[in-house]
């Protein structure tokens, strides 16, 4: 059997790995003390400093967003076909409403400094 490169597989695996790294780095940054305290005390989690965790989180966040766009591009026909079959009138389902509410709460919470956002 001859090997055939598949961009969808690459993008999907990278998004899976990026999500795992973002989860771990997000937990590390949530647990980390403030910047000055982390530097003064030499705080580390899994042998990485807070600054290193911030850099990892930022890089994988941006890379995840870029690969997410690639994922959308590579699966555009599938997405459009699904929407044509399943949502000819784009139905607003309860899951959609809950997702919007959760996104708004997360965004507002981040701006207002709500714990644990």
Model description:
The chain has 5 helices and 2 strands. A hairpin with a 2-residue loop joins strand 1 and strand 2 (48-49). The chain is mainly α. The protein has 2 domains: 7-86; 89-117.
Indicate the radius of gyration in whole angstroms.
19 Å
What count of helical segments does DSSP give?
5
Largest sheet: 2 strands, antiparallel
Structural class: mainly alpha
Proportion of strand residues: under 5%
Average pLDDT value?
90
Helix content: over 70%
Key traits:
117 residues, mainly alpha, 2 domains, two-stranded antiparallel sheet, 74% helix
Please outline what is shown here:
This protein has 117 residues and is mostly helical.
Layout of helices and strands:
Blueprint: H1 7-31, H2 35-41, E1 44-45, E2 48-49, H3 50-74, H4 76-86, H5 94-112
Antiparallel strand pairs: 1-2
